[in-house]
């Protein structure tokens, strides 16, 4: 794409449809006249009076506690310079958008026609009653230093100039990790900082706070090295003036330097300069869009280098979005009166530590990577990592409380973490609880399709997290090659190839032959079938050499289920197996059945399916409220489906009086308790929505879960196979790594439950 097209695309992005990037959206109902009288006159008088009596109630009755002002005068906009307040507005709107999508913080952007410190400070101070925090943006140095200093001193809400501190926090985390990887100590490194603007000064102060010695830091501005002989330096820059006489040029400073930090201009560092640096150098070339030295050129010059830039198309992007949304999130949530040094240091350490933890597969997928892990190409987290909101916000909140600037003290940190996840729509509490349960007693899980990257990546994750002990089936050389090529770490994992005459093959063959000899199978055919990994894996589970089997990623459902039915069979008293999906929705989990096995169940089949699924839902410590679905509501329509669902419910009410179940009913009535109570108050669902839906046939259940998964924003976990004597679980064709890990977790919990029932 040429530059002209890119420019026009950017203009179209901002202008087409509704101009700009943000809007104000009501958070309360506005559907009736009563709603409007509550929102405005006369109802609005009540919160006004409460706030008049107690100013702190403004946080209870208004949006102040989640509202940040992004404020600029347009004097130093990105790389565009002093372009004025109106021209800065697209940038401030963009900052507001990032606050919202990464931390669910609402923003009003304010572009001020105020260049003097006094004018700017007076305007912002007057806005304090409106906002919970102030993010200063794109204000030229040295004015920005004085503006921030005065506002922090004179206001009682968090104030931060992100251009200074955001870059300092993120690059500080990157520096800590880069030094650890390169085997360097912060108090020993020799550092060169090219640039002496707001960001460079703040970064340098952060590095000193982390342990860098001032005498080991040399700083440059456009006029050269900052030294004691300069007479043009203000008080702030004079703090970083060196007394070294041997440094006149950037090339002089780079000799034997351990770290270069660039916040200046593109292409000011040459390959020859890099060659003179110390062993295992660290280079943060953060000028944007053109770094101080090109990433590929630097990497080609020194193979022992760790390199970071401000660009997203290279590893180790120093991006402020890793910090500011979560710093303000933590500050707002404890109603901090300031963002102090302790909070910034806490954010730095939290970001650094997070990079050392296993990377969620969702992050790998977002960046089209396979196995991202801590190392020279991954020294700080990626912006799309949703763990940032919990890790950084919680660290900031704790530091605010510990340093005495918090007006609200959090005591239940688990509840706070859950609140943060809910803000981003990542409320997967049930899955986390299941994971914790699985870790208490991990089981041996055999993977029948181990010659597949996604299976092996999932096996690594469940092994690392202590969820399960993986056993891999497949071609041993092929599996080892995939592990090697993708730098996976599976240690001494057990790998079995059934084609190579395994230790227990004769035992399994005899068992299968005895079980199926009157179904037309010979001894030879039994041995031949066991070469199929689904048959072999099912035998491992049957004989107790594995606790659960996972398969189905690359094969159809029937091919996977058939061996389990033939070898393991159904539980005592169970006539059939059924398939269930757990749909993780914004309103909590909803269980769907049957979605995968029984094509057109009769009344007795539906009864069996409902009983199986009710029992399975209880395994998740959830009380099932079951709706048997139809296109009818309690006899409003006639036909085969309404009739069989009504008869099913009648039998269930008679045989299982403690079961909370009703039907026939339409799906919207099942899920909307108010709608159900208004129209059918006699329903036995007890005024609450159903959380378990039994579909009248496979086509309706299958269509429903796939639609909800694709356009309803729900995460589908399953299919969970219920009714087998021992745990065998079937993956969807093409499941993601996250979906595979979820299924393994459920398989482990299932194995735990079956073991407890048989003990």
From TrEMBL:
Residue ranges of domain Malic enzyme NAD-binding in the record: 164-401
InterPro entries noted in UniProt: Aminoacid_DH-like_N_sf, Malate_Decarboxylase, Malic_N_dom, Malic_N_dom_sf, Malic_NAD-bd, Malic_NAD-bd_bact_type, ME_PTA, NAD(P)-bd_dom_sf
Keywords attached to this entry: Metal-binding, Multifunctional enzyme, NADP, Oxidoreductase
Active site: 95 (proton acceptor)
CDD domains: NAD_bind_2_malic_enz
Recorded family membership: In the N-terminal section; belongs to the malic enzymes family. In the C-terminal section; belongs to the phosphate acetyltransferase and butyryltransferase family.
Gene3D superfamilies attached to this UniProt entry: 3.40.50.10950, Isocitrate/Isopropylmalate dehydrogenase-like, Malic enzyme, N-terminal domain, NAD(P)-binding Rossmann-like Domain
Domain of life: Bacteria
Domain Malic enzyme N-terminal as annotated: residue spans: 19-152
The protein's required cofactors: Mn(2+); Mg(2+)
Coiled coil: none
Residues binding a divalent metal cation: 137-138, 163
Classification lineage: Bacteria, Pseudomonadati, Bacteroidota, Sphingobacteriia, Sphingobacteriales
Binding site for NADP(+): 77-84, 288
Pfam families: malic (PF00390), Malic_M (PF03949), PTA_PTB (PF01515)
MF annotations from Gene Ontology: acyltransferase activity; malic enzyme activity; metal ion binding; NAD binding; oxidoreductase activity, acting on the CH-OH group of donors, NAD or NADP as acceptor
Protein name in UniProt: NADP-dependent malic enzyme
GO terms classed as biological process: malate metabolic process
